[in-house]
Specification:
9 strands; two-stranded parallel sheet; alpha/beta; 10% strand
């Protein structure tokens, strides 16, 4: 490691960080350096690792590991102790200097920092916190910082991470306790959830103090997130959705991220030989969206899975799968039905439903009116009643799924 220069370390540790999906930078408080003091900003930009805020801003982050060496031997991790990969390690000052240098060149506007475990959990957490402390206090860096914390570390160290970072992540790794015990025996579900609970309490307490005292410190204003690996164990989509819902409810998470398992060199014999379809990861994100923004319960999403396998269909989205399973709930009258039922109509998004509710106060809506609010009128028609439209035989067809499912087509490379 001592023979590697900073550029070589960067090549190794930036590549090793690509397996972590939880680097979205949405939700941070706005800060800038227009007063002539400090450096950095959380306002838009272009750069290295792209994440997107809810308002569409592109956020650029320097996404690296402090080190890819690790004393743990998690079977699914390419950086595990027994893995045959080239190792590298940054010092805390090197990460600080890299972040500032990249920012000054307008490559990034923030830092996402994770790490393998070196020496001990406490020592590694100390180094991660030192990077954030130096950026904030020594260099007055006001850009975005996302730290991946270590649940086994001393709670006070994890708490310090929240004082310097905009967001913290504590990965649950796998959706089931049995999967975690089998594939990551050195990690404990109890310790992970205890750390997440303590972080939630600190975020709530600090937010409450901030309302009463201007001098109260900031603490992880963008909240905490987590990540689950999909396809490394036998967990079904139903198991994953149920776990994610529980995490949202118990720990107030800002996001749950899903990362499809990717086969790694010299893999353990207990791992799958093939990666799961990337579409499975996509369907899980869609189901997550349904629970967060469309008022679906975990039981609703689980009901959309295949009863035999517990998996969401890959050829249609979960919302359409639910609608096809519960045909008795449709068609929905666009001029009379409440918001919660309109949100169940395939092809109608949250914005479209809000526009429908606003427009129907002044006039009765036709199918053409609905069509102007959605990109997929063909998907909407069997599930909707409008002023000039009733699906009649269409909604009763036994073969409705192939009629409205997206058509497969071969894209042209040089179209």
């Amino acid at each position: 490691m001592a023979q590697l220069d900073v550029q070589q370390k960067l090549a190794i540790l930036a590549d090793a960080a690509k397996y972590d999906a939880s680097c979205s930078s949405s939700g941070t408080s706005k800060r800038n350096s227009r007063d002539g003091k400090g450096i950095g900003s959380t306002d838009g930009g272009m750069g290295i690792c792209h994440a997107y805020a809810p308002d569409g801003r592109c956020i650029s982050l320097l996404k690296i590991l402090l080190t890819n060496s690790c004393i743990f031997d998690c079977h699914f991790c390419i950086n595990r102790k027994s893995s045959n990969v080239r190792r590298a390690r940054f010092t805390a000052p090197e990460v600080v200097n890299l972040t500032l240098a990249f920012y000054r060149r307008n490559y990034i506007e923030g830092l996402f920092l994770s790490s393998g475990i070196i020496g001990s959990s406490n020592y590694t957490m100390e180094q991660i916190v030192e990077v954030a402390r130096s950026l904030r206090e020594d260099h007055h860096f006001r850009g975005y910082i996302h730290l991946k914390t270590i649940p086994d570390a001393d709670p006070e160290l994890v708490h310090q991470a929240g004082l310097y970072a905009d967001r913290v992540s504590i990965n649950v790794e796998l959706p089931t306790a049995s999967g975690l015990k089998r594939l990551a025996p050195e990690k404990s579900e109890g310790r992970i959830e205890t750390a997440m609970k303590e972080m939630k309490t600190a975020i709530i307490d600090t937010a409450d103090a901030k309302k009463r005292y201007k001098s109260a410190p900031r603490f992880a204003p963008a909240g905490q997130s987590t990540q689950m690996i999909v396809g490394a164990d036998a967990a079904t989509d139903g198991d994953i959705v149920t776990k994610a819902s529980g995490l949202y409810d118990r720990f107030g998470l800002h996001r749950v991220y899903y990362s499809a398992f990717s086969p790694i060199p010299d893999a353990s014999a207990i791992l799958p030989l093939k990666r799961p379809p990337l579409m499975r990861e996509h369907r899980l994100y869609q189901s997550d969206w349904l629970m967060r923004f469309y008022d679906y319960t975990p039981a609703d999403v689980v009901a959309a899975t295949d009863q035999a396998t517990g998996m969401l269909p890959l050829d249609i989205d979960p919302k359409l799968a639910w609608a096809l399973k519960f045909r008795g709930s449709f068609p929905v009258d666009v001029n009379r039905s409440p918001r919660e039922m309109l949100l169940r109509v395939p092809g109608l998004g949250v914005k479209a439903v809000s526009n429908i509710l606003a427009a129907r106060r002044w006039r009765r809506l036709s199918l053409a009116d609905v069509g102007r609010l959605t990109q997929s009128i063909a998907k909407v028609r069997p599930f909707l009643i409008a002023d000039d439209w009733r699906p009649l035989a269409l909604s009763d067809r036994a073969d409705l799924r192939p009629v409205i499912a997206p058509k497969k087509e071969q894209l042209e490379l040089f179209a």
